[in-house]
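queue> holo job accepted (zinc ion)
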Amino acid sequence: MSALRCSVCSAPLHPDGRSLRCVRRHSFDLAKQGYVNLLRAGVDAGTADTSEMAAARADFLATGRYAPLVDVLARVVEASGEPEFVVDAGAGTGYYLAGVLDRVASAWGLALDVSAPALRRAAKAHPRIGAVVWNLWEPWPVADGVADVVLDVFAPRNTAEFHRVLRPGGLLAVATPGAGHLRELVTELGLLDIAGDKTDRIAESLGDHFEPVDVDTASHTAELDADEVRKLVLMGPNAHHLHRGGLGAKLDALTGATEVTFEFDVSVLRRKE
Ligand SMILES: C[S@@+](CC[C@H](N)C(=O)[O-])C[C@H]1O[C@@H](n2cnc3c(N)ncnc32)[C@H](O)[C@@H]1O
Ligand SMILES: [Zn+2]
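queue> job finished
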């Protein structure tokens, strides 16, 4: 709570019954599901994950297939010293932030995401998570220099705000899909090419504000049953394109197991002064 700022006037926010309020009496309702919406304006349709995508994401992540990425992120947070506050930008259902907080008992976490259905889940994912609906492209409703670590897992990157909310010397971890991520499904199902920016491109784009510390890659393969493949596809951007190339029909027709490659790159950067 002490890290949050009013999205109208930037004053600190305080709990007041079922809302958060600043000294100028700007007020934001706490949803009964445990998150707060600080947005003042709407966001473009199609930006936020839908409740179907959030449900598919929660179900798929519960299989543990992406657990190696939690390990990498937790190691980054542990390496930051004795972290007290971790911000997850585009936290989705809170899976990664909750996994990190399980490992780092000293820290509290803030989940920022524009998707209310995803944040309902994030708010319940861990007792030390606070969840705020926000558009990452706007200045964040977060005080200067309060975060020990910012996580960004497959989410939009706002360099200026990463820098502003991090303390001096704080760490930024940017996770992106590696070159081989889900390559079997890209071939067999014709998925959108989900490969993220190359890590040198990420370091370059953040270079004015951050110096690169490390790039960690985690990769493994697993046999997925048809139901897991469906969830994996429906939790991401392909969910918006089920008619393209008959993707929906291909998913319906799936039976048996598919070998799938998972590959994650995590760029670790340190905030420059
Ligand atoms: C691919 S998902 C990743 C979610 C989570 N980090 C994970 O890996 O499970 C991208 C997330 O970014 C969120 N998102 C997209 N654009 C956003 C924006 N402008 N502001 C805030 N969140 C945004 C979506 O709602 C979604 O939860
Ligand atoms: Zn205010």
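queue> The domain at 35-271 is CATH 3.40.50.150 (Rossmann fold).
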